[in-house]
Amino acid sequence: MRSISILIFIQLLSGCVSENGPxxxxxxxxxxxxxxxxxxxxxxxxxxxxxxxxxxxxxxxQGKHDEVVNPKFxxxxxxxxxxxxxxxxxxW
Length: 92
What we know:
Layout (H helix, E strand, L loop, with lengths): L1 H13 L2 E2 L2 E2 L12 E7 L4 E7 L4 H4 L32
Antiparallel strand pairs: 1-2, 3-4
């Protein structure tokens, strides 16, 4: 029960779920073009899933860049949006 509450809390923080239902820009009708159907079989029949395939960098940079540069920092980052009028304290 606690993990479900945390998941709902995270979804509310991310802005993808509200009291009126989903609010994300990608809906069931509009599929992300970078999701590709893939399959696997471990002996129970073929299973299918959708996985994100990173698009070519030139499609994201209007053709200005050809090579992906990996960042030197390999840490973690998070961005939180407080959607309520109340103050929220986050501790690590």
